[in-house]
Amino acid sequence: MGEFAAAVKSVVVEIKPSNSEVVPWEDLLESMEQKSVLYSMKKKKSRHARYFYGIIFMLTNLIAWFVRDYGEKVISQLQYLKSWGIDEHDCFHTMGVLRVSLGCFIFFFMMFLTTCNTSKLYEVRNTWHSGWWASKLAILILSLVVPFFVPSDLVQLYGELARVGAGVFLLLQLVSVIEFITWWNNYWMPDERKKQSCFLGLFMSTLFYITSVCGIVVMYALYASRPSCNLNIFFITWTAILLVVMMVISLHSKVNRGLLSSGIMASYIVFLCWTAIRSEPATAKCSPQKQENANGGWTTVVGFLIAIFAIVMATFSTGIDSQTFQFRKDDVLLEDDIPYKYGFFHLIFSLGAMYFAMLFISWNLDSSTRKWSIDVGWASTWVKIVNEWFAATIYLWKLISPALTESKVRDHEEPAQQLDNSTSP
Fold it and tell me: What pTM does this model have?
């Protein structure tokens, strides 16, 4: 900004006479300040817009839940569906969730197509992303209504595609979580020039490991107390092994990454293991789920609402983390650049629509789920367990790969040094 202002000032000085030099220069500064204020307002409006999209996503989640659990009572009264050749039984339970998810996907994918490659705040697509809410509300309602008139075969096809999209969402979420853990480790365990923060980092790493070990012990006590619970014993034991492996590799002399990041990751995979075991169906002999009535108790309702909020937060946090998935991270943001990547943000929400559909139907397109339940069933259990193992694998590779790269470079440099020594007189 300073170099640009100096260049403009020199031009003004050359063109204008000496008695009028100050006036155009002040006008230019005022214009630049007005643009700066305008860009600041646009950025603020853009940041606020993402919360509105998060609210839209949460509302579609609640609509999907309502259609699944209570849609039969409401939609069965809409007799005009039969005139369209649609059976009302194809509009609730699993099919209802998929239809709502399809509408949510259509809306956010359309937003992705219309905002992709937006880079500047003065572009029309920035105004479209941050405003025009009445028009977008009409488009959202239309997007949610149209799928209820789509043939069931196409909805089933979308359900199959949603499994893939949900898997991609989980992968992107894992990468985002691991990058956040890396950033947190760098923040709390800085270099030696900031020794005042090291004690707090060591305290937090110890706290995370204690929490992880306590989680392992509690899971053994609650979910693997009998020898017949072979599967749960395997899940918990393998999680404990992964915890130890991550700690040992983090402390290895060639890696030397400290205990904080591995401690946070250990807590994360223990949490994934716990959610996987919690997803086991209530009919399983070692299931922690209690047999409850159709409406469920208050703990079921609270757990359900927390799960809905967690889905929204996971989608939101991954959507605004576009920096993690950029190939070049050294680009300097200019004043008129958008604060986050709109296209990536909406793409994550469109994949999140597929993900919440799979959670509501427990990754099973052929069976209905119990009221006030979410992500319960053997398919959900195995998806979470595989997600846990995949997260641990990605993290371990992130620890090991720099050491492997350095060793390859060292092995490549040693023959060259030996060759130089042999040719020297």
Answer: 0.78
